[in-house]
Amino acid sequence: MIIYRTEHAVYLLGLEAKETDMTKTILITGTSSGYGKAITEHFLTQGWNVIATMRRPEAANFAGDASRLRVLPLDVTDEASIAAVLETTGPIDVLVNNAGIGAVGAFEVTPMSLVRQLFETNTIGVMAMCQAVIPQMRARRSGIIVNVTSSVTLGAFPLAAAYTASKQAIEGFTGSLAHELAYFGIAVKLVEPGYAPTTNFGANAIIPFDQLLPGDYADFAKPVMEGFASPALTTRESDVAEGVWGAVHDATGRLRFPAGPDAVALAEAR
Fold it and tell me: Which of left, alpha, beta for 58 (phi over 0: left; psi -120 to 50: alpha)?
């Protein structure tokens, strides 16, 4: 048993590791590749029942015990899709909000339609998933929600203004939500991954980077992109999977879990 403190109240949460080890059903969004795929495989390896969701489940390709795995279609921007998934899965013990889209470029030429897409998926999609699972967790007085953001929330990164805004919104949202749900025995956590060159972040961008970089920005952008090409520290997909595992099993009331050497370095420098 741990003590959870806020400015106005003290709540007791039964979230010792031995108790969360009994939690066996986890739903993860955005699992077709990258961090989501790694998180899925990590929990499968640990013997959990995993519900892996993605927009196109035909792309699923996971290592691990397939008997413990369910792959379901999910669009986090579609309320009907969210409702259908939760009706199919029944009760879940842990929700990991990992689904997200990226965008890199000069904000001056970033279409507002793209900004809205970023917020629909990265921000409102996360909120919608949280809102959908809270009633069942509140009724049971137990549950864990892990929201995956980004190390862009740990420092000011150029050429990522809209993307950063969509992730920073979830940082504030999660901190507030953690306070109000602690009363009901529900833990809410943040995992903040660093930069992983091996993921499809750039390739999955809705608009290619070169289309969001006017000529006047070329001299400014050159050293920035050179830095991304040869970073001193990077994150592996497994770092994020381990970060989520640590967040799920945390018994200290900790909110933030930077994942990857570069994210940890940024967090320690704050």
Answer: alpha
